[in-house]
Amino acid sequence: MRPYIGSEIGELETVILHRPGTEMLRLTPENKDDLLFDDVLWLERAQEEHDQFAKVLTDHGAQVLYLRDLLSQTLEVPEARSYLVKEVLSACESGCGSDSSVQDWAERLSPTDLAEVLIAGITKEELLEQLPTVSSMTLAAMGDDDLLLSPLPNHLFTRDSSSWVYQGVSINAMQHPARRRESLSYRAIYRWHPLFAGQDFPLWCDGEASPGATMEGGDIQIIGNGAVMVGVSERTSSQGVEQLSAALFKGGVEQVIAVHMVKNRAQMHLDTIMTMVDHGTFTKYVGAGMMPTYTLRPNDDGSIHTTENPPEAMNDVIAQALGLDSISTLTTPQDLRAAAREQWNDGANTLAIAPGVVITYESNVNTNEYLTSKGVTVHPIPGSELGRGRGGPHCMSCPVSRKPLA
Predict the structure, then answer these.
(1) Are strands 227-232 and 255-260 parallel, antiparallel or unpaired?
(2) Domain span holding position 350
(3) CATH number (domain holding residue 91)
(4) 3-state DSSP call for residue 227?
(5) What is the CATH number of the domain that holds 199?
(6) Does 191 lie in the same domain as 85?
(7) Are residues 229 and 256 in the same domain?
(8) What are the residues whose beta carbons fall under 8 Å from the beta carbon of 12, sequence distance 6 or more?
(9) Region Disordered: what ranges (predicted)?
(10) Residue 350 CB partners (closer than 8 Å, separation 6+)
(11) Distance CA 252, CA 317 (A)
């Protein structure tokens, strides 16, 4: 497999997913907001829904790589294991991660068990069952069910922390503390996993945030023709866009379109309001309207030239980047209340598995019927549980390779 993503719509060949697991059982009404979920979920049903999502992908010829498997296999490499144990335990909320006995215990775990701890976290009681001698004042003051290492339930949304853009990958610097450890998993996987180790691909960003510079993959869309569209959103900053753009331009990308969005949770990423479904065709939430954009291009001296575009020029700017006279935006005709409900349930968050063929949540009936009426083939999946973290099929997928467009 040679990683390459040249568009949002080329036939999907390889994709990374994360099947929800024990980490979801760590969600409670008290901690769900800190962990960026709107509600606790029913794990078994969420797994069933995710399995149906994966089946649609494999039925259409895509190879599904599961994050948990990739991480377990990566942890078979001693250097990767040592790296992750050191980096993750240094973030241990109780301070016990600096205890050498805890580090030794983690190093002795099987790859599968260590991957489970890294994803699901661990409580005081669970640690003491395996390592009764460890002690610290902070640990002693904690309750048995208190988490020493927080879970990573947002690994479900594999799009955000890792984004393949043309021939390289961006490991993204996440906005919220609840998600920052996700980048460590990908840093290890792309460096040491046999599928990726030794492949000479550019690392556009390494997941380390500079002051004010954040980037999340839900804001990155590889629209093709040497162009990338990036949302400046609740989660992605202007500084993050400029840093990514500078790296992409060194790798041959010709322009980046920065779309300045309203900053709220319902529209946390660009892909919550707009996704590409076919050649020059996008689905778009009516409430997003036309948004101001900035066109970034490389100068000969390595600096970046920025052009400010008014909101009414948005579609023309995207069309120009694609080398087209115009683009088509598919906005479901419905009243604003219905539109807001479907947008909240990721109505615009489609995953294209081929040109004009998309996966959506089945609950967005109006949007699905409208897309079908416009010639788009829609494969609806259940998402009553998966959607509780405010993410749809586009959010839950990290494409690694797509076939080139004809």
Answers:
(1) parallel
(2) 12-63+153-402
(3) 1.10.3930.10
(4) strand
(5) 3.75.10.10
(6) no
(7) yes
(8) 57, 60, 61, 62, 352, 353, 354, 399, 402
(9) 383-406
(10) 275, 277, 283, 358, 359, 360, 371, 392, 393, 394
(11) 20
* Separation of first and last alpha carbons in the chain: 20
Active-site entry in 92, 96, 395, 398 = 395
- Domain C-terminal end among 125, 149, 173: 149
Phi, psi of 152 (to 5 degrees): -120, 70
Question: Mean pLDDT, to the nearest integer, of 123-133?
Answer: 89
At residue 343, what are phi and psi to the nearest 5 degrees? -65, -40
74 and 55, same structural domain?
A: no
Tokens representing 105? 């215990």
Active site residue 395: yes
Q: How many CB atoms lie within 10 A of CB 38?
A: 13
SS3 (DSSP) at 281: strand
Indicate the range of 73-87, 112-126, 336-350, 374-388 predicted with least confidence: 336-350
Contact 351, 378 (CB under 8 A): no
Residue recorded with tokens 């006279």: 325
Calculated CA dihedral for residues 254, 2, 7, 236, nearest 10 degrees: -70
Q: Is residue 5 one of the residues assigned to a domain?
A: no
